[in-house]
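can u pls check wat happens w/ zinc ion
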Amino acid sequence: MAERSRTYRTQAVILRRRDYADADRILTVYTPRLGKVELIAKGVRKTTSRKAGHLELFSHASLLVAQARTWGIVTEVTTVESFLHLRSDLDRISWAGYVCELVDAFGSAEDESQPLWEMLLYALRMLDSDEAQIDLFLRWFEMHLLSLVGFQPELFNCLACGDELQAVTNYLSLAAGGVFCPRCGEAAGGTEPIEPGLLKVLRHIQRSSWTDVRAVQLRPQTIQAVENILYRYLVLVLERQLRSVDFVRRLRSARNQLAVTSNQ
Ligand SMILES: [Zn+2]
């Protein structure tokens, strides 16, 4: 029986790729309308392949895909943005890898992928630019990604009674996904106190554009505290979803190495 196929054109960012068979590659890509998709690129590991150069990790490409029964097959590819500056720097490459892993971990095949698609491109363009505050930018990216995929932490109203949180020491519960007021926080288990200054910074990161966030001068300790909270929250959400076990393991080991270095 002849295999029916339909052909479609899409933009895509290459999140992940792995070798397959003799000369093929399986690509995990993120697209503006189909969300996360796995495709096969046939023959791209042959030195004569004209597609190979356009299917680098983190590339923004335009693809023509023939949808076969099992796989979407990449039949044509052109580069839209190759992010050359990003590729010239090892730090930037690892940050781009982190951004793509997060999108891979939280993204799925769905219809409403445009906002996450735009966020992904925005992040890659930022990493390709001369932006100096990359640490803080990645925290901003994590926070906005969490909101886009339905895990926005509640930072404005008490999780239990709903009252607006005041500028006092409140109680953070990552497991519960937000903050309790002092009264409810004492009754709830597994909370940690959070100072009003830190809560204010988290809120600012959550509801502001990157341009507004980068305009505020933050102390390194504050950025570190934000990183610590977001890191623990990301790991908790990913583990609860039972997703990306390898990614969580790598996150943890990168984190442990950081802790060792900063203790020396
Ligand atoms: Zn309360």
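Residues 158, 160-161, 163, 180-181, 183-184 surround zinc ion (CB under 6 Å).
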